[in-house]
Design brief:
The protein is of the alpha+beta class. Among the domains are: about 210 residues, outer membrane lipoprotein receptor (LolB), chain A (Clam), CATH 2.50.20; about 30 residues, no CATH class. It is about 40% helix and about 25% strand. It has 13 helices and twelve strands. A twelve-stranded mixed sheet has the order 7-8-9-10-11-1-2-3-4-5-6-12. Strand 4 and strand 5 form a beta hairpin. Helix 2 packs antiparallel against helix 9, helix 3 crosses helix 4 and helix 9 runs antiparallel to helix 10.
């Protein structure tokens, strides 16, 4: 599976970087691409919309190849094809803000915003449960259980209201003893990728289309990976993506992606994932004629990120308490010897390892004094 991991890492690298009809082509397509990347990276605000380009037949074929023949129903495939993730950013660093909208099967079912170090969340819980075939009646039971534990914010959250969380980083530091990661230097990463493309990419033009000039970019995987793996390593230290593979595990082959440029900016990027499947030697070949690609549509974002009105303020300690209750409930079931039994409140189950608590603050360790006496201060 080593080469598959390498391919996934390269996909992340490539995806993170990146009118009127006419037959005209750039005299220097590569220069047009580099200039567009530089201009796009300098924008004050950008909106990225990521979606999957495929069809029900291809998704069904790929699911059968990966899932032992189970396949994917056309209705479920359509839900995937009708879904997208849109992220808008404004500014950089601590002064920056963002919003993310997850559209599931044509409905904006989840939203997240970050403004002035406050995190805002909203979800159509009932809609999501119905979309994924769950029982909406279980929502009410979950809300009542949460309220019995004093988690009063769960009801408005389950009803689709905005909630706001301030001081989440500090709460995480207090609960875990760890310092949350800071944002990486995204501009440096883009600069490194642009420099790599200058050196390694081969670019041709297919002419003008509705969304801009269509450029076909051929990239040697291993050379591109080696040229900016150091900057991506810094990124991976702050965003948990796993240990990066050595360049020797990256196939020494070229892959192609399609980029559209309009008004000297990147407007759209299409990356065919099937070519990665065909390069990997530890996975089965992709089904014949299957189509599966990631489409990233890019626009300038000139608006401000609006703060939701009447958001329900939530103590971040309650958030950790909610996840702690979920964790304890799940672990308790692991230790039960027979159906219907449950572990005591302090019993974490046979699968729990006290080493997982090393480095936690004293107030957390004290809750597990009986199970982990060697860790007590």
């Amino acid at each position: 599976m080593k080469k598959t991991g390498a391919l996934v890492a390269v996909i992340a690298l490539l995806l993170s970087a990146c009118a009127e009809g006419s037959d005209s082509k750039s005299e220097d397509p590569k220069a047009a691409l580099i200039s567009a990347m530089e201009n796009t990276g300098e924008s004050e605000g950008l909106t990225f919309t990521l979606s999957i380009q495929s069809n029900p037949e291809s998704l069904d074929q790929l699911a059968k190849a990966d899932g032992g023949g189970s396949g994917l129903a056309e209705e479920d495939a359509e839900k995937i094809l009708d879904s997208s993730i849109t992220v808008s950013t404004r500014g950089q660093g601590e002064e920056g803000s963002f919003e993310m909208v997850v559209n599931v099967a044509g409905e904006d079912d989840f939203e997240m915003k970050g403004v002035d170090k406050v995190l805002y969340l909203r979800a159509d819980v009932e809609g999501l449960v119905e979309t994924f075939g769950g029982d909406p009646n279980q929502i009410a039971a979950g809300v009542e259980q949460a309220e019995a534990q004093g988690l009063t914010f769960v009801r408005p959250a389950a009803e689709g209201e905005w909630i706001s969380i301030e001081g989440l980083d500090e709460a995480a530091r207090q609960m875990t003893g760890l310092t949350p990661p800071s944002l990486p230097d995204q501009q440096q990463f883009i600069d490194d990728l642009t420099a790599s493309f200058k050196e390694n990419a081969t670019v041709t033009s297919e002419g003008q289309e509705d969304v801009g000039e269509h450029l076909v970019v051929s990239v040697p995987l291993r050379a591109t990976y080696e040229s900016f793996v150091e900057s991506f390593s810094e990124l991976s230290q702050q965003i948990p993506v796993g240990q990066l593979p050595p360049a020797s595990e990256v196939p020494d082959e070229a892959v192609v992606m399609d980029v559209w440029v309009d008004d000297e900016r990147v407007t759209q990027l299409l990356f065919d994932v099937i070519q990665f499947v065909e390069l990997a030697d530890d996975v089965e070949d992709a089904p014949e004629d299957a189509e599966f690609a990631f489409l990233a549509e890019i626009e300038e974002f000139d608006d401000e990120i609006e703060v939701p009105e009447d958001a329900v303020a939530v103590d971040p300690q309650q958030i950790f308490g909610l996840f702690g209750s979920m964790f304890m409930g799940g672990m308790g079931g692991m230790d039960s010897g027979s159906a219907g039994s449950s572990a005591p409140a302090g019993d974490l189950g046979a699968g729990f390892n006290c080493d997982d608590l090393k480095g936690a603050p004293p107030e957390v360790l004290s809750q597990f004094a009986e199970e982990c006496p060697e860790l007590q201060p």
